[in-house]
Amino acid sequence: MRKPSRQRCHAALAGLVTLATAAVLSVSVTTPAAAADTWTEVGSDRADPLTESQGLTSVEVPAGSPNHYTGIGTIPIGVSSRGWNHVGDPDASYNGYYVEPYQSDSGSSKMYRVQAPGGAWSEYVHALSPGEALNNSFDTISPDGQWMVSGEWGTMTRLLVFPTPGVNPSTSPSANLPQASTINLDHAVRDVQGCDFVTATQLLCSSDDPAGTLFGITKPLLQIDLSAAPSGSGDVTGHVTALRQLPLRSSCSGTFEAEGIDYDRRTGTLRVIVVSPGFCVLTDSKTYRFTKS
Predict the structure, then answer these.
(1) Would you say domain 4-292 falls under CATH 2.120.10?
(2) pTM score, whole prediction
(3) Which end of the chain has less Cβ packing within 10 Å, N or C?
(4) Distance (Å, rounded) from C-alpha 5 to C-alpha 257?
(5) Which of 115, 136, 125 is nearest to 178 (CA)?
(6) For residue 34, pLDDT beyond 70
(7) Mean pLDDT throughout 93-111?
(8) What ranges do the domains of the chain cover?
(9) How far apart are CA 244 and CA 249, in angstroms?
(10) Across the chain, how many H-helices and E-strands are there?
């Protein structure tokens, strides 16, 4: 199974010449969600469909590092040629390690590509457990750096916890990356594209839910409050709250896609990518910025 944004980006780019002559469709207007809205939109930036269409993360170490983004154009040829042809929403640890989540069509494993603070890359492969979806939508690293939360696609009542590859001393590129524990959610979530730690026991997540039947809104921003910080010593529970609908604005009408999410603890800024429908995937997809009100 493939997340639809990658297919849509390929289709949009392949048909650019033809689509450029099409008339611009009517503006899509969305009513804000009635749920508690504690995150206020403060601005936006264009999201490039090739290099900023899947995920993003702020990087604290080394100091002065630029934000990192992922998209179909950021996958190295040497990685895609081995079947790892989809990259999700990445994260960077507070001690400088950067981790990108990859999936392939094989249906037997996932891969996490890790860059050390010195610049060297390594790969950690996780063999799927029975019943585990092949999708590798995102990763987010706990504030202590030792644990990584990752997500599947579809309607789920859990998130997966792994030792952080390259950081946790139990991990090795030459060994299978095992699942350490599970976050059991008290409310189902659908099509979570990204999560990021705000504190050791709180996550913010972007959901691409197209139906709106779980929380009464489509494309919600979710907050997950944990009963304890994730670790390898046992499962924890997560209380899920839908905070608001993500912005759905474009010069084209059709289906939007919520993508990756990032919380920058240095500034308190939350950023979420929303990919526009149709031809406008190329022109007005946005990374929206929020601050807590």
Answers:
(1) yes
(2) 0.88
(3) C
(4) 7
(5) 125
(6) no
(7) 94
(8) 4-292
(9) 15
(10) 3, 19
